[in-house]
Amino acid sequence: MRIDRSSLHDTVLAGVVAAASVALFALYGPDRLQAEGIPVEGVRPPDLLGALLLVVASVPVVVRRRWPLAGLCAGMVPETLLTALGYGLGMSGLAGMVLLFSVASYRGLAVALAGLVLSLVTYVAGIVSSPIRAGTVSEYVVTAVVLVAVWGAGRSLRLRRAYLEELKDRAARLERAHAADTRAARAEERSRIARELHDVVAHHVSVMTVQAAAARRVLAADPDLAREALSAIEHTGRLAMTEMRNIVGVLRTDTGAGARAELGPQPGVRDLPALVEQMREAGLPTRLRVEGAPVPLPAGVDLAAYRLVQEALTNSLRHAGAGAEAVVTVRYEPYELDVRVRDDGKGAATQGGKGAATQGGKGAGPQDGKGGAAQDGPPATAGHGLVGIRERVALYGGILNIGPLPGGGFEVRARLPLKDGQ
Protein backbone atom coordinates (compact mmCIF):
# COMPACT_ATOMS: atom_id res chain seq x y z
CA MET A 1 0.00 0.00 0.00
CA ARG A 2 1.36 3.39 -0.96
CA ILE A 3 1.56 5.87 1.90
CA ASP A 4 0.97 9.58 1.31
CA ARG A 5 4.09 11.21 2.68
CA SER A 6 2.48 14.63 3.16
CA SER A 7 -0.30 13.11 5.30
CA LEU A 8 2.27 11.16 7.30
CA HIS A 9 4.32 14.29 7.88
CA ASP A 10 1.25 16.26 8.98
CA THR A 11 0.24 13.48 11.36
CA VAL A 12 3.68 13.51 12.93
CA LEU A 13 3.55 17.32 13.13
CA ALA A 14 0.17 17.17 14.87
CA GLY A 15 1.61 14.75 17.44
CA VAL A 16 4.60 17.01 18.06
CA VAL A 17 2.39 20.08 18.43
CA ALA A 18 0.07 18.23 20.86
CA ALA A 19 3.01 16.95 22.91
CA ALA A 20 4.64 20.40 23.07
CA SER A 21 1.35 22.07 24.01
CA VAL A 22 0.63 19.56 26.81
CA ALA A 23 4.22 19.89 28.11
CA LEU A 24 4.04 23.67 28.26
CA PHE A 25 0.58 23.44 29.79
CA ALA A 26 1.89 21.19 32.58
CA LEU A 27 5.08 23.19 33.23
CA TYR A 28 3.53 26.63 33.36
CA GLY A 29 0.89 26.14 36.04
CA PRO A 30 -0.16 28.74 38.62
CA ASP A 31 2.70 27.80 40.98
CA ARG A 32 5.39 28.31 38.32
CA LEU A 33 3.85 31.57 37.18
CA GLN A 34 3.61 32.88 40.73
CA ALA A 35 7.27 31.97 41.40
CA GLU A 36 8.26 34.08 38.39
CA GLY A 37 6.27 37.05 39.67
CA ILE A 38 3.43 36.77 37.19
CA PRO A 39 -0.08 37.41 38.54
CA VAL A 40 -2.11 34.21 38.63
CA GLU A 41 -5.52 35.56 39.54
CA GLY A 42 -8.17 33.44 37.80
CA VAL A 43 -5.67 30.91 36.37
CA ARG A 44 -6.93 27.35 36.57
CA PRO A 45 -4.36 24.66 37.44
CA PRO A 46 -3.51 22.01 34.83
CA ASP A 47 -5.79 18.99 34.76
CA LEU A 48 -6.95 16.22 32.47
CA LEU A 49 -9.69 18.33 30.84
CA GLY A 50 -7.22 21.05 29.81
CA ALA A 51 -4.78 18.48 28.42
CA LEU A 52 -7.59 16.81 26.48
CA LEU A 53 -8.67 20.17 24.97
CA LEU A 54 -5.07 20.82 23.89
CA VAL A 55 -4.89 17.48 22.14
CA VAL A 56 -8.23 18.14 20.43
CA ALA A 57 -6.97 21.57 19.30
CA SER A 58 -3.93 19.90 17.71
CA VAL A 59 -5.88 17.25 15.75
CA PRO A 60 -6.82 19.59 12.82
CA VAL A 61 -3.12 19.94 12.03
CA VAL A 62 -3.41 16.50 10.36
CA VAL A 63 -5.51 18.04 7.54
CA ARG A 64 -3.71 21.38 7.34
CA ARG A 65 -2.80 20.88 3.64
CA ARG A 66 -6.14 19.58 2.40
CA TRP A 67 -8.57 21.71 4.45
CA PRO A 68 -6.51 24.44 6.15
CA LEU A 69 -9.33 26.94 6.73
CA ALA A 70 -11.70 24.26 8.04
CA GLY A 71 -8.93 22.96 10.28
CA LEU A 72 -8.30 26.48 11.60
CA CYS A 73 -11.98 26.95 12.42
CA ALA A 74 -12.16 23.53 14.10
CA GLY A 75 -9.04 24.22 16.19
CA MET A 76 -10.41 27.55 17.40
CA VAL A 77 -13.26 25.86 19.26
CA PRO A 78 -11.12 24.05 21.89
CA GLU A 79 -8.71 27.01 22.05
CA THR A 80 -11.57 29.37 22.85
CA LEU A 81 -12.82 26.95 25.53
CA LEU A 82 -9.35 26.79 27.08
CA THR A 83 -9.17 30.57 27.26
CA ALA A 84 -12.73 30.93 28.56
CA LEU A 85 -12.12 28.30 31.30
CA GLY A 86 -8.96 30.13 32.44
CA TYR A 87 -6.35 27.52 31.54
CA GLY A 88 -2.83 28.99 31.40
CA LEU A 89 -1.76 31.96 29.36
CA GLY A 90 -2.46 30.83 25.81
CA MET A 91 -0.21 27.80 25.49
CA SER A 92 -2.77 26.28 23.18
CA GLY A 93 -1.82 28.88 20.51
CA LEU A 94 0.81 26.58 18.96
CA ALA A 95 -1.73 24.62 16.95
CA GLY A 96 -3.53 27.81 15.97
CA MET A 97 -0.34 29.37 14.59
CA VAL A 98 0.48 26.23 12.59
CA LEU A 99 -3.00 26.22 11.08
CA LEU A 100 -2.87 29.97 10.34
CA PHE A 101 0.46 29.47 8.59
CA SER A 102 -1.07 26.62 6.57
CA VAL A 103 -4.04 28.74 5.45
CA ALA A 104 -1.71 31.51 4.29
CA SER A 105 0.64 29.16 2.42
CA TYR A 106 -1.90 26.80 0.78
CA ARG A 107 -4.81 29.08 -0.11
CA GLY A 108 -5.40 32.23 -2.13
CA LEU A 109 -5.19 35.75 -0.80
CA ALA A 110 -8.88 36.11 -0.03
CA VAL A 111 -9.08 32.90 2.01
CA ALA A 112 -5.77 33.71 3.71
CA LEU A 113 -7.03 37.14 4.78
CA ALA A 114 -10.23 35.55 6.06
CA GLY A 115 -8.13 33.16 8.18
CA LEU A 116 -6.05 36.02 9.58
CA VAL A 117 -9.11 38.10 10.49
CA LEU A 118 -10.76 35.05 12.05
CA SER A 119 -7.67 34.36 14.17
CA LEU A 120 -7.44 37.96 15.37
CA VAL A 121 -11.16 38.11 16.17
CA THR A 122 -11.00 34.82 18.07
CA TYR A 123 -7.97 36.04 20.03
CA VAL A 124 -9.74 39.27 21.00
CA ALA A 125 -12.90 37.35 21.95
CA GLY A 126 -10.82 35.00 24.12
CA ILE A 127 -9.25 37.95 25.93
CA VAL A 128 -12.63 39.50 26.63
CA SER A 129 -14.21 36.24 27.86
CA SER A 130 -11.23 35.00 29.88
CA PRO A 131 -11.37 35.33 33.66
CA ILE A 132 -7.58 35.91 33.71
CA ARG A 133 -6.52 39.53 34.09
CA ALA A 134 -2.76 39.14 34.02
CA GLY A 135 -1.77 40.58 30.62
CA THR A 136 -1.06 44.15 29.55
CA VAL A 137 -1.99 45.96 26.35
CA SER A 138 1.57 45.69 25.04
CA GLU A 139 1.52 41.91 25.52
CA TYR A 140 -1.70 41.63 23.59
CA VAL A 141 -0.25 43.78 20.78
CA VAL A 142 2.87 41.60 20.63
CA THR A 143 0.70 38.48 20.34
CA ALA A 144 -1.27 40.07 17.49
CA VAL A 145 1.97 41.03 15.76
CA VAL A 146 3.19 37.43 16.09
CA LEU A 147 -0.01 36.19 14.45
CA VAL A 148 0.43 38.64 11.55
CA ALA A 149 4.09 37.61 11.19
CA VAL A 150 3.14 33.93 11.03
CA TRP A 151 0.55 34.75 8.38
CA GLY A 152 3.11 36.78 6.41
CA ALA A 153 5.59 33.89 6.51
CA GLY A 154 2.93 31.60 5.06
CA ARG A 155 2.14 34.05 2.26
CA SER A 156 5.84 34.42 1.47
CA LEU A 157 6.18 30.66 1.17
CA ARG A 158 3.17 30.49 -1.15
CA LEU A 159 4.51 33.25 -3.40
CA ARG A 160 7.89 31.57 -3.57
CA ARG A 161 6.25 28.25 -4.44
CA ALA A 162 4.22 29.95 -7.19
CA TYR A 163 7.38 31.62 -8.50
CA LEU A 164 9.21 28.29 -8.68
CA GLU A 165 6.25 26.72 -10.49
CA GLU A 166 6.28 29.57 -12.99
CA LEU A 167 9.99 29.03 -13.56
CA LYS A 168 9.40 25.31 -14.15
CA ASP A 169 6.54 26.06 -16.54
CA ARG A 170 8.63 28.61 -18.39
CA ALA A 171 11.50 26.15 -18.67
CA ALA A 172 9.11 23.53 -20.03
CA ARG A 173 7.75 26.01 -22.60
CA LEU A 174 11.25 26.99 -23.65
CA GLU A 175 12.18 23.34 -24.00
CA ARG A 176 9.12 22.68 -26.15
CA ALA A 177 9.86 25.76 -28.26
CA HIS A 178 13.47 24.65 -28.66
CA ALA A 179 12.33 21.19 -29.71
CA ALA A 180 9.91 22.72 -32.24
CA ASP A 181 12.66 24.98 -33.61
CA THR A 182 14.98 22.00 -33.86
CA ARG A 183 12.38 20.00 -35.79
CA ALA A 184 11.76 22.95 -38.12
CA ALA A 185 15.49 23.41 -38.67
CA ARG A 186 15.89 19.73 -39.45
CA ALA A 187 12.99 19.82 -41.90
CA GLU A 188 14.44 22.90 -43.57
CA GLU A 189 17.86 21.25 -43.75
CA ARG A 190 16.37 18.11 -45.27
CA SER A 191 14.59 20.23 -47.88
CA ARG A 192 17.79 22.11 -48.65
CA ILE A 193 19.79 18.89 -49.01
CA ALA A 194 17.12 17.36 -51.24
CA ARG A 195 17.16 20.46 -53.45
CA GLU A 196 20.97 20.47 -53.65
CA LEU A 197 21.09 16.75 -54.42
CA HIS A 198 18.55 17.13 -57.21
CA ASP A 199 20.49 19.95 -58.81
CA VAL A 200 23.80 18.09 -58.59
CA VAL A 201 22.46 14.73 -59.78
CA ALA A 202 20.30 16.17 -62.57
CA HIS A 203 23.14 18.23 -63.98
CA HIS A 204 25.91 15.66 -63.86
CA VAL A 205 23.76 12.73 -64.95
CA SER A 206 22.48 14.75 -67.92
CA VAL A 207 26.06 15.58 -68.92
CA MET A 208 27.10 11.96 -68.54
CA THR A 209 24.12 10.78 -70.61
CA VAL A 210 24.95 13.12 -73.49
CA GLN A 211 28.61 12.12 -73.40
CA ALA A 212 27.76 8.40 -73.28
CA ALA A 213 25.48 8.81 -76.31
CA ALA A 214 28.28 10.60 -78.17
CA ALA A 215 30.76 7.87 -77.23
CA ARG A 216 28.39 5.18 -78.46
CA ARG A 217 27.93 6.89 -81.83
CA VAL A 218 31.66 7.28 -82.53
CA LEU A 219 32.90 4.11 -80.83
CA ALA A 220 33.44 2.19 -84.08
CA ALA A 221 34.46 5.09 -86.31
CA ASP A 222 36.75 7.04 -83.94
CA PRO A 223 37.88 5.05 -80.86
CA ASP A 224 40.11 7.90 -79.66
CA LEU A 225 37.19 10.35 -79.56
CA ALA A 226 35.07 7.72 -77.80
CA ARG A 227 37.85 7.26 -75.26
CA GLU A 228 37.88 11.02 -74.59
CA ALA A 229 34.12 10.97 -74.07
CA LEU A 230 34.44 8.07 -71.64
CA SER A 231 37.17 9.95 -69.77
CA ALA A 232 34.87 12.96 -69.58
CA ILE A 233 32.13 10.71 -68.20
CA GLU A 234 34.53 9.44 -65.54
CA HIS A 235 35.58 12.97 -64.65
CA THR A 236 31.95 14.16 -64.46
CA GLY A 237 31.03 11.19 -62.26
CA ARG A 238 33.86 12.00 -59.88
CA LEU A 239 32.72 15.60 -59.69
CA ALA A 240 29.19 14.47 -58.94
CA MET A 241 30.38 12.15 -56.16
CA THR A 242 32.53 14.92 -54.65
CA GLU A 243 29.66 17.40 -54.61
CA MET A 244 27.27 14.84 -53.12
CA ARG A 245 29.78 14.05 -50.38
CA ASN A 246 30.06 17.75 -49.61
CA ILE A 247 26.28 18.05 -49.37
CA VAL A 248 25.41 14.99 -47.31
CA GLY A 249 28.66 14.86 -45.37
CA VAL A 250 27.30 17.32 -42.81
CA LEU A 251 24.78 14.69 -41.77
CA ARG A 252 27.51 12.39 -40.47
CA THR A 253 27.89 12.20 -36.72
CA ASP A 254 31.63 11.55 -36.69
CA THR A 255 34.34 14.22 -36.81
CA GLY A 256 36.07 12.91 -39.91
CA ALA A 257 34.90 13.43 -43.46
CA GLY A 258 31.59 14.95 -42.31
CA ALA A 259 33.36 17.73 -40.44
CA ARG A 260 35.63 18.43 -43.43
CA ALA A 261 32.61 18.46 -45.77
CA GLU A 262 30.85 20.95 -43.54
CA LEU A 263 33.81 23.30 -43.85
CA GLY A 264 34.03 22.88 -47.62
CA PRO A 265 32.97 25.90 -49.72
CA GLN A 266 29.72 25.80 -51.66
CA PRO A 267 29.85 26.59 -55.39
CA GLY A 268 29.06 30.10 -56.46
CA VAL A 269 29.31 32.62 -59.27
CA ARG A 270 33.11 32.26 -59.15
CA ASP A 271 32.69 28.66 -60.39
CA LEU A 272 30.64 29.56 -63.46
CA PRO A 273 33.66 29.50 -65.83
CA ALA A 274 34.35 25.88 -64.90
CA LEU A 275 30.65 25.05 -65.34
CA VAL A 276 30.60 26.71 -68.77
CA GLU A 277 33.70 24.78 -69.78
CA GLN A 278 32.10 21.55 -68.66
CA MET A 279 29.03 22.25 -70.79
CA ARG A 280 31.26 22.93 -73.80
CA GLU A 281 32.94 19.57 -73.34
CA ALA A 282 29.51 17.95 -73.12
CA GLY A 283 28.60 19.32 -76.54
CA LEU A 284 26.71 22.55 -75.75
CA PRO A 285 28.57 25.64 -76.98
CA THR A 286 28.29 28.06 -74.09
CA ARG A 287 29.54 31.61 -73.53
CA LEU A 288 29.80 33.50 -70.25
CA ARG A 289 29.41 37.26 -70.05
CA VAL A 290 29.95 39.28 -66.89
CA GLU A 291 28.71 42.86 -66.86
CA GLY A 292 29.36 45.40 -64.18
CA ALA A 293 31.91 45.37 -61.35
CA PRO A 294 31.79 42.08 -59.39
CA VAL A 295 31.01 42.50 -55.69
CA PRO A 296 31.06 39.97 -52.84
CA LEU A 297 27.71 38.19 -52.73
CA PRO A 298 25.88 36.72 -49.72
CA ALA A 299 26.52 32.99 -49.54
CA GLY A 300 22.87 32.08 -50.15
CA VAL A 301 22.48 34.36 -53.18
CA ASP A 302 25.82 33.16 -54.55
CA LEU A 303 24.76 29.51 -54.36
CA ALA A 304 21.27 30.25 -55.75
CA ALA A 305 22.75 32.00 -58.78
CA TYR A 306 25.09 29.10 -59.49
CA ARG A 307 22.36 26.48 -59.16
CA LEU A 308 20.04 28.49 -61.41
CA VAL A 309 22.66 28.62 -64.17
CA GLN A 310 23.46 24.94 -63.66
CA GLU A 311 19.83 23.86 -63.98
CA ALA A 312 19.16 26.15 -66.97
CA LEU A 313 22.22 24.86 -68.85
CA THR A 314 21.26 21.29 -68.03
CA ASN A 315 17.84 21.84 -69.58
CA SER A 316 19.44 23.44 -72.64
CA LEU A 317 21.83 20.52 -72.99
CA ARG A 318 18.98 18.02 -72.86
CA HIS A 319 16.33 19.77 -74.91
CA ALA A 320 17.68 22.67 -77.00
CA GLY A 321 18.54 20.40 -79.89
CA ALA A 322 21.55 20.02 -82.15
CA GLY A 323 23.51 23.14 -83.06
CA ALA A 324 22.07 25.20 -80.20
CA GLU A 325 24.25 27.70 -78.36
CA ALA A 326 23.75 29.00 -74.82
CA VAL A 327 24.74 32.36 -73.38
CA VAL A 328 25.08 33.01 -69.65
CA THR A 329 24.93 36.65 -68.62
CA VAL A 330 25.70 37.82 -65.11
CA ARG A 331 25.09 41.50 -64.51
CA TYR A 332 26.07 43.27 -61.29
CA GLU A 333 23.84 46.24 -60.57
CA PRO A 334 23.95 48.50 -57.48
CA TYR A 335 21.16 46.71 -55.64
CA GLU A 336 20.50 43.68 -57.78
CA LEU A 337 22.16 40.65 -59.34
CA ASP A 338 20.70 39.86 -62.78
CA VAL A 339 21.37 36.29 -63.98
CA ARG A 340 20.20 35.27 -67.45
CA VAL A 341 20.60 32.01 -69.37
CA ARG A 342 19.28 31.82 -72.91
CA ASP A 343 19.74 29.47 -75.83
CA ASP A 344 18.81 29.67 -79.49
CA GLY A 345 17.69 26.04 -79.85
CA LYS A 346 14.39 24.92 -81.36
CA GLY A 347 13.60 22.32 -78.74
CA ALA A 348 11.37 24.68 -76.80
CA ALA A 349 8.74 24.56 -79.47
CA THR A 350 8.92 20.86 -80.12
CA GLN A 351 9.90 19.11 -76.90
CA GLY A 352 7.91 19.24 -73.73
CA GLY A 353 10.89 18.30 -71.59
CA LYS A 354 12.42 21.70 -72.28
CA GLY A 355 10.03 23.23 -69.87
CA ALA A 356 8.19 25.44 -72.35
CA ALA A 357 6.39 28.34 -70.81
CA THR A 358 4.71 31.53 -71.86
CA GLN A 359 5.34 34.82 -70.16
CA GLY A 360 1.82 35.54 -69.21
CA GLY A 361 -0.33 35.75 -66.16
CA LYS A 362 0.84 37.15 -62.87
CA GLY A 363 4.34 35.74 -62.96
CA ALA A 364 5.35 36.94 -66.42
CA GLY A 365 6.73 40.38 -65.86
CA PRO A 366 9.13 41.96 -63.41
CA GLN A 367 6.40 44.14 -62.09
CA ASP A 368 4.79 41.16 -60.41
CA GLY A 369 7.48 40.78 -57.81
CA LYS A 370 6.65 37.13 -57.19
CA GLY A 371 9.05 35.66 -59.67
CA GLY A 372 6.54 33.32 -61.27
CA ALA A 373 6.14 32.39 -64.91
CA ALA A 374 2.87 30.95 -66.11
CA GLN A 375 3.40 27.43 -67.41
CA ASP A 376 1.31 25.95 -70.20
CA GLY A 377 3.58 23.28 -71.69
CA PRO A 378 3.54 19.50 -71.42
CA PRO A 379 3.90 17.77 -68.06
CA ALA A 380 7.66 18.22 -67.97
CA THR A 381 7.16 21.87 -67.13
CA ALA A 382 6.39 20.83 -63.57
CA GLY A 383 9.79 19.15 -63.20
CA HIS A 384 11.64 19.42 -59.92
CA GLY A 385 14.41 21.49 -61.54
CA LEU A 386 12.23 24.48 -62.38
CA VAL A 387 10.38 24.12 -59.09
CA GLY A 388 13.72 24.19 -57.29
CA ILE A 389 14.72 27.33 -59.16
CA ARG A 390 11.46 29.01 -58.14
CA GLU A 391 11.99 28.07 -54.51
CA ARG A 392 15.54 29.41 -54.49
CA VAL A 393 14.64 32.72 -56.10
CA ALA A 394 11.56 33.17 -53.91
CA LEU A 395 13.64 32.43 -50.79
CA TYR A 396 15.75 35.52 -51.42
CA GLY A 397 12.91 37.75 -52.60
CA GLY A 398 13.90 37.67 -56.27
CA ILE A 399 11.96 37.80 -59.52
CA LEU A 400 12.02 34.82 -61.89
CA ASN A 401 10.98 34.70 -65.55
CA ILE A 402 10.96 31.44 -67.50
CA GLY A 403 9.74 31.09 -71.07
CA PRO A 404 10.44 30.81 -74.80
CA LEU A 405 11.92 33.71 -76.75
CA PRO A 406 9.94 35.33 -79.61
CA GLY A 407 12.50 34.42 -82.26
CA GLY A 408 13.09 30.91 -80.96
CA GLY A 409 15.04 29.59 -78.09
CA PHE A 410 14.43 29.67 -74.38
CA GLU A 411 15.37 31.95 -71.51
CA VAL A 412 15.63 31.64 -67.73
CA ARG A 413 16.19 34.94 -65.95
CA ALA A 414 16.38 35.75 -62.27
CA ARG A 415 16.83 39.10 -60.56
CA LEU A 416 18.08 38.71 -57.01
CA PRO A 417 18.05 41.77 -54.70
CA LEU A 418 21.21 42.78 -52.87
CA LYS A 419 20.96 44.70 -49.61
CA ASP A 420 23.17 47.79 -49.37
CA GLY A 421 24.84 46.79 -52.57
CA GLN A 422 25.99 43.44 -51.19
Automatic annotation (TrEMBL):
InterPro entries found in the cross-reference section: DUF7134, HATPase_C_sf, HATPase_dom, Sensor_HK_TwoCompSys, Sig_transdc_His_kin_sub3_dim/P
Reaction(s) catalysed (UniProt annotation): ATP + protein L-histidine = ADP + protein N-phospho-L-histidine
- UniProtKB keywords: ATP-binding, Coiled coil, Kinase, Membrane, Nucleotide-binding, Oxidoreductase, Phosphoprotein, Transferase, Transmembrane, Transmembrane helix, Two-component regulatory system
Leader sequence range is: none
- The Histidine kinase/HSP90-like ATPase domain covers which part of the protein? 303-419
Q: Which SUPFAM superfamilies match?
A: ATPase domain of HSP90 chaperone/DNA topoisomerase II/histidine kinase
| Class of enzymatic activity (EC top level) | transferase
Start and end residues of each stretch annotated as Disordered: 345-384
Q: What is its EC number?
A: 2.7.13.3
Q: Name one GO molecular function term.
A: oxidoreductase activity
Organism superkingdom: Bacteria
Q: Which residues form a coiled coil?
A: 157-184
What residues does the DUF7134 domain cover?
8-161
This chain's protein is named: histidine kinase
Q: Which organism is it from?
A: Nonomuraea composti
Q: Lineage from the top down? A: Bacteria, Bacillati, Actinomycetota, Actinomycetes, Streptosporangiales
